[in-house]
């Protein structure tokens, strides 16, 4: 069962990565956001260091809210493994979460869409990558 879980979480992460690439075609999402500020990447604590880090904090909170969402089933609708339907208008860099999503998929899709749009309008500051953990208390 672990293998299926790993595969699903990789697919869900890849879906989010593709969404970021829709709004920022020249970015490297997995590298750029894997260890940035206090909230981008695994875990999160302290005060966000900038707008981009705040995008990640809001995204983390959105996933937490998804786990409490009345339409989301525990385990089955985990935001870290949920797959949803969306489309990307490459010319306008616009993401649309599609109406064929159920209520839970739509909620999680919106979490990812808002984060991708937030990343696109926030500066990436090299000094905020690989922050020492004592900066995030």
SSE topology sketch:
Blueprint: H1 2-23, H2 29-33, E1 35-36, E2 40-41, H3 51-68, E3 86-89, E4 94-97, H4 103-120
Antiparallel strand pairs: 1-2, 3-4
What is this entry, summarized?
The protein is mainly alpha-helical and 137 residues long. It is 46% helix and 9% strand.
> What is CATH's topology name?
Phospholipase A2
Indicate the low-confidence ranges by residue numbers. Answer: none
- Helix share, percent: 40-55%
Residue fraction in strands:
5-15%
CATH uppermost class: Mainly Alpha
CATH architectural grouping: Up-down Bundle
Structural class: mainly alpha
Biggest β-sheet description: 2 strands, antiparallel
Shape: globular
Rg from Cα: 15 Å
Number of helices: 4
Strand neighbour order, sheet with most strands: 1-2
Spatial gap, N to C terminus: 35 Å
User: What sequence of helices (H) and strands (E) makes up the elements?
Assistant: HHEEHEEH
In the CATH hierarchy, what is the superfamily? Answer: Phospholipase A2 domain
The count of β-strands is 4
Name the average pLDDT.
91
Please give the domain count.
1
